[in-house]
Amino acid sequence: MINSNISKIIITFAFFYSALMCNFKAIELYDNGHFTLSYFIWFCSFLALMGALRFQIAKIIYFIIKKKKQYYGKK
User: Fold this and answer.
1) Backbone angles phi, psi at 32, to 5 degrees
2) Backbone angles phi, psi at 51, to 5 degrees
3) What is the pLDDT of residues 12-52, one digit of tens each?
4) Among 42, 48, 2, 5, which residue's Cα sits nearest to residue 24?
5) What confidence tens digit (pLDDT) does each residue in 60-75 have?
6) How many CB atoms neighbour CB 53 within 10 A?
7) CA atoms of 14 and 64, how far apart (whole Å)
8) Which position among 2, 22, 23, 67 has the lowest Cβ density within 10 Å, counted as fewest Cβ atoms?
9) Dist. CA 40–CA 19, nearest whole Å
10) Measured on CA atoms in the order 39, 45, 51, 53, is the torsion positive or negative?
11) Are 65 and 73 in contact (CB under 8 A)?
12) pTM (predicted TM-score)
């Protein structure tokens, strides 16, 4: 149980680090005129950020599903 939580934290930090590094690289490429590649790397950075926030996103989705079931269940 403890190892599972530690591994989740490590992977989350890895996603944040990846998002940060992708952002810096995209800025560098954008400044050098490589617009298409920089946009692609910014997209990758966004995906890494979403990966880092995966547990919070899941909580929001489950909350919405729960509220939706409560709303439609009352009819």
Assistant:
1) -90, 0
2) -65, -35
3) 999 999 999 999 999 999 999 999 999 999 999 999 999 99
4) 42
5) 999 999 999 888 876 5
6) 16
7) 28
8) 2
9) 13
10) negative
11) no
12) 0.80
- For the record, the structure tokens of 20 come out as 């940060």
Angle between helices 54-73 and 35-52 in degrees, nearest 10: 70
Cα 65 to chain centroid, rounded: 20
Q: Which two tokens stand for residue 66?
A: 């729960």
- Joined tokens for residue 61: 């989705």
Q: In which residue are the tokens 């190892």 written?
A: 3
The Cα 23–Cα 52 span in angstroms is 14
**Using CA atoms, how far apart are residues 65 and 22, in angstroms rounded to an integer?**
33
**pLDDT at position 5 over 90:** no
Give the count of beta carbons closer than 10 Å to the beta carbon of residue 14.
13
Tokens matching residue 4:
């599972």
Structure tokens at 42: 């910014």
